[in-house]
Amino acid sequence: MQGASRESYAATRAELEQLTDAAALATAAEEILAVAGLLRAEPRLRRAVSDPARTGEQRSQLLVGLVGGQIGATAQNLLGSLVAGRWSSPVDLLDGAERLGVETLVVGADRAGELAEVEDELFRFGQIAGGDSALAAAIGDSTAPVQRRFELVDQLLTGKAKPATVLLAKEAVKGFGGRSFAGALTRLVELAAEQRDRSVAYVTVAQPMSDADEAKLGEALARRYGREVALKVTVDPKVLGGARVLVGSDLYDGTVSRRLSDVRNALAAK
Prior knowledge:
The structure is a single chain. By secondary structure, the protein is of the alpha+beta class. It has 3 domains: 109 residues; 83 residues; 71 residues, no CATH class. The chain has 13 helices and 4 strands. The chain has a 4-stranded mixed sheet, sandwiched between helices. A hairpin with a 2-residue loop joins strand 3 and strand 4. Helix 2 packs across helix 5 and helix 7 runs antiparallel to helix 11. Its main location: membrane.
């Protein structure tokens, strides 16, 4: 998003943060995502509700007048606030509407006391999909009908994960933020962690970590970054031993496989 768009989104996001009714937020999230889908499908409407020649109130009235009878008050208020802001382009508004739907889901899960579980379920879903090449190809195939890929998500998650997790996984399938399925899922995990005021550390080890070792690593990272850190641990025997830790763009690689690679490279350079 450009500068004006970022400011407009931030203003609506601040309004979202004031809401506390988890059930209303869950309903509003689905409604906002449905309206975002309408904006994606209707470029003329997208241009109309981001047209700088109209006042913010006129843009808000236009959108609410079109969809207000089909969505509840919470979604109406948030969407009305969103389109009333200044947007650098219709595409920025579309991105903002999609992100607003996702973040409304995240805030709703937080208000329900379920966000930590949703965050972990999304991460584990990514591990399941990433660990099966055929499944990863089927879910991540952007050329396949999205409804077919939604059915795969339902088969894997419905009844086994929180409803918010299922909906967020479907947003990843749709390529949230223009990302690949894996990239979108990673971003959703991070948004959930950010809502809980945490950073995410992706940890790769050769064998499962004990609870004590996880706690020790979490405390060390919290001291380094000045905030709580959510550990997302992947077991990969190929690293042989040690650990690889990725926090944002910071990579700490103390794995045996990395040390062996360094030795081989050093010997090759002689």
